[in-house]
Design a protein that fits this description.
Elements lengths: L6 E2 L2 H4 L6 H11 L8 H32 L7 E3 L16 E5 L5 E2 L18 E2 L5 E2 L4 H6 L6 H11 L1 E4 L2 E5 L16 E2 H13 L4 H13 L19 E9 L2 E12 L11 H18 L3 H4 L1 H15 L29 H17 L7 H22 E3 H8 L23 H6 L5 E8 L2 E7 H9 L5 H13 L1 H4 L8 E2 L4 H8 L19 H11 L3 H14 L9 E2 L5 E2 L8 H15 L13 H11 L19
Helix pairs in contact: 2-3, 5-21, 6-8, 6-21, 8-11, 10-11, 10-12, 11-12, 11-15, 15-16, 15-19, 19-20, 19-21, 20-21
The structure holds alpha-D-glucopyranose (GLC).
Alpha-D-glucopyranose binds next to helix 6.
């Protein structure tokens, strides 16, 4: 395939057009010499992407300057831009990153336009969501379910997963959150959620279908911190949206034509209006998995992708008022995206943060400009893992220690550092804690330990090696010991136990969706099967996941792949659960694929630095009254 070269006017001429889409489009039209000979449909799609890319390009130019400031990038006369260009050859919009260089006359030379062929099978002949977000031909769910050809749950799941694919300009870009024909109000379940797409993406990767994942990664990158505001306030640079929707809108100046646009939601439309802190972290984790699975490292090496990684890291590593190395977030900033008392330093965010830091470290290209960022990253990895392993860990021994804590200790070497009053130990925990096993608590704040067991945080602490090997085994021991509560009739409880009565009223704000043992408040979420599977495989205990998958298989297809189950035992389909929830389907598929090929779990697993292993084991086994120091570390981490 050939390439096109484009000559851009200088930034100073381009930027004044920022607020006017038409001049912007016009200016971009004149900027790019694009291939001709495309059919009218292709031309329309191209027009769209130009519009999107035009505004993105200008915004990105502006963003890049602040990156230079933070990072100390210095490229002399060279300007960095995440320039997205389009080639409709093959009808695929491909964004291209690059360094735009001045030619000495104030003109910026754009990088070459990259082109690639799409693999044809992913087009929506197989059925799925067309560019307007509507379900397209290729068979409806009912047809699919009724088909005699479906001879196994797995086949059915694959059909449903393919039917959930969302198309943008004719090409797959993600999967819809739920495709429930029985529910007339779609709310935002007709969108592509970043976190929901992760198991879909992993399933496609494990099946060797890489294009949809690459397309998802690159398109969501374009949406990163798009100018969305709430009450005149914009989210921080680097924030990835919670979800996006493909909208079909009339083409500017042409009533008879329409175009596709990507409309991201950073939480400003979401119930609760919370920024999704987990989105960017999952994006980094998926990016690494894509490279490891496909062997195609060119995506992570791209300049715009490297910039995207750095922007996420900078947002997470930015200094604030916090004294702890854990990431400080508001309530509902992750999978549990409603008020559930998980503000502060919830475990799930910390586990994803740690994992994303390690994944990013593997992918960041060594260059002078990133040395400060990598130093900050290394420091945070050490401090974060020490903090979580030491202060979030709980088992019988630790519980007994807390039970006997002295309080009001003023000193640098206090044992009860966070001034936890022993009365906080909830009565349920005294009974519940098994003699063999332990877990990481849900949250730690001054004078407060949230003792609830949160599944995703614990499972991902195993996967990412945030927990030590001993702790990881102990968590699986606890899962086995508490099987009848955590798995029961449907894997896997999102958290245990549920808030009830006055506690529920105060903590959830009397949320009728989060009533005890429902939804986020102790509901059972089949999607968690895949994280459980990765964790079990990593610890060489796949039989635990196999057992859970067998339990799910008894009902999940018959129940039409619900989003979640209610009651203590997970016996009922959730009160307001969607059916045909994509991540329930994809989570099941990922579990099956990984159990059949356990080595593939390595695309998600982070292995620990050997230096840290020895340093931490000596620290953790030390007398708690001993003053903490870092002498055990061979390597010094200096900010
Ligand atoms: C609910 C879940 C959230 C998920 C979304 C789409 O809001 O809490 O984690 O991403 O639905 O499935």
């Amino acid at each position: 395939m050939g390439t096109s070269e484009a000559v851009l006017p200088s930034l100073s001429t381009a930027v004044p057009h920022l607020s006017h889409s038409k001049p912007c489009l016009n200016s971009l039209n004149s900027m790019l010499h694009l291939k001709s000979g495309i059919n009218s449909r292709r031309k329309r799609a191209l027009g769209y992407m130009r519009l999107l890319n035009c505004s993105r390009m200008l915004r990105n130019c502006r963003r890049v300057y602040s990156i230079q400031g933070i990072d100390g990038f210095s490229h002399g006369k060279t300007k960095i831009s995440r320039l997205e260009s389009v080639s409709c050859k093959g009808q695929q919009a491909e964004s291209v990153s690059g360094i735009t260089a001045e030619d000495g006359h104030g003109t910026i030379i754009a990088p070459k336009i990259k082109e690639f062929e799409m693999v044809e099978p992913m087009r929506h002949e197989k059925g799925g969501f067309a560019s307007n977000g509507k379900f397209a031909a290729g068979g409806t769910i009912n047809d699919t379910l009724g088909k005699a050809s479906i001879d196994s749950i797995e086949d059915e799941a694959w059909n449903l997963l393919r039917e959930s694919i969302v198309f943008y300009c004719g090409y797959p870009i993600g999967t819809i959150a739920a495709n429930d024909p029985s529910n007339s109000s779609s709310l935002n379940y007709d969108q592509v959620f970043i976190r929901d797409f992760i198991p879909s993406g992993i399933a496609f990767l494990l099946k060797g279908e890489y294009d949809i994942v690459r397309s998802f990664i690159l398109h969501t990158l374009q949406l990163q911190s798009w100018e969305k505001t709430m009450d005149c306030h914009s989210p921080g640079q680097g924030l990835m949206p919670a979800s996006f929707k493909v909208r079909t809108v009339p083409l500017d100046g042409d009533d008879s034509a329409t175009e596709d646009v990507l409309d991201p939601d950073f939480g400003e439309a979401a119930i609760g209006r919370v920024a999704p802190v987990d989105s960017g972290l999952w994006w980094i984790i998926l990016l690494r998995a894509y490279g490891k699975c496909s062997g195609d490292l060119s995506v992570q090496e791209r300049f715009d992708v490297q910039t995207g990684i750095k922007m996420i890291l900078k947002l997470c590593l930015a200094d604030g008022f916090d004294m702890f190395p854990t990431l400080l977030v508001t309530d509902g900033s992750c999978m549990i995206d409603r008020r559930m008392g998980i503000h502060g330093h919830p475990l799930e965010i910390q586990a994803l943060f740690y994992s994303a830091l390690l994944c990013a470290r593997e992918m960041l290209a060594p260059e002078d400009g990133s040395s400060a960022l990598i130093r900050a990253l290394n420091n945070r990895v050490v401090a974060l893992s020490f903090h979580i392993r030491e202060y979030y860990w709980i088992d019988m021994r630790k519980l007994n220690e807390i039970y006997r804590y002295k309080t009001e200790e003023y000193s640098y070497d206090a044992v009860n550092k966070f001034n936890i009053y022993p009365d906080q130990i909830p009565p349920w925990l005294v009974e519940w804690m098994p003699s063999k096993g332990g877990y990481l608590i849900g949250n730690l704040q001054p004078a407060h330990m949230d003792f609830r067991f949160f599944s995703l945080g614990n499972l991902w602490s195993i996967v990412s090696s945030l927990a030590t090997t001993d702790q990881s085994h102990a968590m699986l021991d606890l899962i086995e010991a508490k099987w009848s509560e955590l798995v029961a009739d449907m894997p896997f409880k999102i958290c245990y136990p549920a808030f009830e009565g006055q506690e529920w009223r105060i903590t959830t704000g009397s949320d009728p969706k989060n009533t005890p043992w429902s939804y986020h408040n102790g509901g059972s979420w089949p999607t968690l099967l895949w994280q459980l599977t990765v964790a079990c495989i990593k610890m060489n205990r796949p039989e635990i996941a196999e057992k859970a998958v067998k339990i799910a298989e008894k009902r999940i297809s018959r129940d039409k792949w619900p989003e979640y189950y209610d009651t203590k035992q997970g016996r009922f389909i959730g009160k307001q659960a969607r059916l045909f929830q994509t991540w329930s389907i994809a989570g099941y598929l990922v579990s099956k694929l990984l159990l059949a090929n356990p080595d593939a779990a390595n695309i998600l697993v982070n292995r620990e630095d050997s230096d840290l292993v020895s340093a931490f084991s000596s620290m953790l086994s030390a007398n708690p009254r001993r003053k903490r120091d870092w002498k055990g570390l061979k390597q010094k981490f200096i900010v």
